[in-house]
Each structure stands twice: as structure tokens, then as C-alpha cells.
Amino acid sequence: MSAKILIVAEHDGARLNASTAKCVSCARALEGAEIVVAVCAADAAAVAAQAAQLAGVSRVLTVENPANAHALAAVLAPQLVALAGPFTHVLGPSTTFGKDLMARVAGLLDVPQISDIMAIDGPSRFRRPIYAGNAILTVELAGEGKVVGTVRTASFEAAATGGSAPIEKATVNVELPTHTRFVSVSAAKTDRPDLQTARRVISGGRALGSAEGFKILYSLADKIGAAVGASRAAVDAGYAPNEMQVGQTGKIIAPELYMAVGISGAIQHLTGIKDARTIVAINKDSEAPIFEVADFGLVGDLFQIIPEIEKLV
Amino acid sequence: MKRILVGIKRVVDYNVRIRVKPDGSGVATDGVKMSINPFDEIALEEALRIKERGGAEEVLVATVGPADCQQQLRTALAMGADRALHVQADGVIEPLVVARALLKLIEREQPLLVIVGKQAIDDDNGQTGQALAALWNRPQATYASKLELSGTVARVTREVDAGLETLEVDLPAVISTDLRLNEPRYVKLPDIMKAKKKPLDTFTLEALGVTPRRQLKLVKFEPPPQRQKGIRVKDPAELVAALKKKGLL
Description:
By secondary structure, chain A is of the alpha/beta class. Chain A has 9 helices and 16 strands. Chain A folds into 2 domains: 4-169, Rossmann fold (3-Layer(aba) Sandwich); 200-312, TPP-binding domain (Rossmann fold, 3-Layer(aba) Sandwich). Chain A has a 7-stranded parallel beta sheet, with helices on both faces. A 5-stranded parallel beta sheet of chain A has the order 13-12-14-15-16. In chain A, strands 6-7-8 form a 3-stranded antiparallel beta sheet, with no helix packed on it. In chain A, β2 (34-41), α2 and β3 (59-64) form a beta-alpha-beta unit. Helix content of chain B is 28%, strand content 31%. Chain B is built from 7 helices and 13 strands. β8 of chain A pairs antiparallel with β12 of chain B, so a sheet runs across the interface.
């Protein structure tokens, strides 16, 4: 039996999140799989049109409901369960959206979930990181039947565009709960590239000393078109907002260039960057563990080094 | 009685250097320091603070696992939990089984709120809270960095990729904790003595009517690929030149 894969689109109502294209790449690792993307939204047209362009997608299903204006797991999960019937795999991204939602879907379906899929070795065989990436586990479904998964987006390239899959409206007759209500979301507006998809990322640690100290990173980032991230220590200290955190409990990223500035390199941080193509470490402590994984290491005072780099690029 | 149920897991302490066994059958845990999963410790701390503010009358701590887990339950009692519930189970216990066992405890204890860590730092699954909320048919608010209770609702600030999201959920509900919700307290020696006298009830999965179903086969464990150690550059000019040469700048 060939795989039929339902991918839950992540979006903000207008734009499809790049994580969805990565899920499609993960699904395409299963040869001959039929790949369907589900877009649950208040108005799905714009997002569905973007999903339809992803190479490898055979159909896009839209579920429109005013209750889908904000992605609430408790509201979305029963709708996805209603769609899941014919599918062998139900996948979502391993982002806060997908992690929150998919485990609820798995619970409702009463099927196992594979979290953080980094490779699909067959329809029922997957690899995933455990212990903050200190071990890789190969896991297999013990029986037949459906499986839910979250896809570790840093492990997959985004699927190309250029496709033109048909878009179909799906109707789901399920009662949606009202016990969970969206209140607000606060996010700093930034013109910098998105941390999760940026080709270049500069991250700062506690050594930056203050939110003010981070300004030298923003300045360099703007000059080279980079996103800015932060270590947990820097976020805990209030130097940067939580959405900038990179690591096991923050964002897992795979940029072409990652510059770790004043970050010692705790294992929980390294988990978030080990798929970066090139890692640069700048730190005054020459013994810092970050140098163990860095392709290029520079020991010295970041407050002198960063402005110098900015002048040279 | 207004109760909060906290789910905890015994895991390899976060400071331990993880080694995969040479035969690929698992991760070495013999003689390794074990602790309460750090996110679950935050869950317990939050429950204790709610009780201390008068928002709850009793804090229950529950775990599903082998006999050794009682050490972590005793630590939780020493932190201030009033009562511990131990569901005995050996071997690999999948998140859905844990969720079903917790649901049985919920049916017995009727808590106002259930708080769990957002993930355990051993298998990093991050599923139990959401699976429990699904089976219980109640709201979930995951990745909480702020939690306020008022009457029959909870207002929860969540750390999401976009920033901070605030949800309002009707109680009872399941909350999962993120790192910045609070800083757990340290256990004091007299409290460890006191904890020995606090009630700790044990159950079996069978007695609760939960089947220890295994839906996944753990085929093999491998160490992750190591990155090659790179080179040291002497100054910013050499660094920029090297990055330009690789087409990265």
C-alpha cells in the first residue's frame, strides 16, 4: 500500500510558513506517496494558492471557518481528525504551532506520534533526535495503521515551487470547542529575515551584557542581511525577546552561516545549530565549548571584533 | 477541594553527559544521576505558588514509571507537594499510555488544573500534555511563560515562534510549562524529613485499567554525527576573508 500523507499547513492567514514546504520535502522521501496539504483558515484562498505551488503536492484541501482565524490546537485538532480518515501519515512541522497541535491530533486519533522526524527511512521507519540531539533513535511502527509526525524542519530543504495542484474545499462536520479563546499575540516587528529560514544568522549570548549590547549585532546583521538570534542565557537575562532563542527549547535552525557571538555553547544551544553549514564562534574564552563545533573560531573581545567585521564586509 | 495535579518524569539529570551504549540498544543510565525532568520541576513550582497565593488547596504530584521514580516523588513532596501518586510501570512507556494513566488519576481526583512540563529532556517527545488534553476533551495551553487563574478561567501567556501569545482557557485545563515560567525553589533539609511522612499512593496500570500498549519499536540508538573541528583565525580580517572565499559573505 502506498503512503497517503496529509500535511497540516502552518500559516498566518495570509502567508504559508516555510515550514510547510519542508514537511513536503520530508513526505517526498517516501517514493510514490500521495501528498495532500490541509489549509485550515478563516479565508484559505491565499494560503491554499501558495501550497498548491509546492512541487510534489497532489491536492490542497481547504477548511474554512471563522473559528480558524487563529491557530488554536483544540479547535484545529478535531477538524484534522475528520480529514485524516484515508491517510496513512498526518504530518505537521516541529514548530511551536505543529508541536502543540499534532500531539493533540494523535491523542484524538489514538495513534502514536513520531516527534521531530529528521529522516524517513520507509513508511513505518523514522529517525529522530533524543536527549537534546545527543543520540539518534531509529523507531519503527510496531503495527499497521496511521501515524502522526512532526517534522524537524532543519533536516529538510524547502520543496521547490512551480507546481499547480488542484484546490478543493473540504467540509468537516464536527463540533468545535469554545473552551479555548485567542486573546492576543505580541511580536516585535522586524524587517530582518525570519530566523527560521534566514541564510545567515548572528546570535548573541550573555556576553553582550545588555539589550543595548545587542545593537552591534543588529547593525552587522542589517549590513549582511542576517537574522539575529540569542542564547537562552541572553533571553533569560532580558537582552533579547523569547522568539529569538535558538536551541533545544527555542528554534532549531539550519542557516548557511551561523555566527555565535559571546555564546559559550551549552549542549542545549548546540542542538539548535548543528545543521548550520558553517559555524563561526567569537568568544573571549578560548576554552569555550562552542569552539569544538565551530568551523572558524576567533578569540577576542566581541565589542572590538564585531564593529571591525562590519567595516570589512 | 481545589486541586492541582502535576505530572513529573524521572529522567537522566540534565548535567549528565549522554553516552549511547556501544551495542546501540539504548543510552547508558547505570549509575547515572537521575532527577525530576526540569520542565516538570517548573510545573510543580507553579502549582506550589498558586497554592501559596490561595488559588488551590492541594497539590498532587504524579508519575508513571518504575519503582525508582519514588525518589523523584519524594523530592517533589519535599518541594511542597501534599500527596504523591505513583503509577507503577516498567520498561518503555509511550506518551499515550502516560496520558491514559494520568486521565484515570484525574477521574479520581477531579483537579482544577493539570500542569506538566512541555517535554521530557530524555526522549524529547513533547506529547503527553496535549495527548492528555485530547483524551480528557479539555483545553490545553502549552509552552506557558505566565499563568493567571481567575474564577473558572486561566489566562496563559505562551512562548511561540512568533513571540508571546495569550490564550484564555476554561478550567479544568492542561497547562505545559516553558523555561521562563518560574525558577523552582531549592529543597531544604527539614522538608526532606517532612516529605517522608507525606502520603504516597501506588497503583498499577492494570488496576487503573490502562493497557501498557507499545506502538513503537525502538530499533537502534546511535551517537549523532560529529562536526569536524575547524580552525582558529587570528583576527577579523582573516575571518572575513575566509567567509568571503566560501561565498558566505
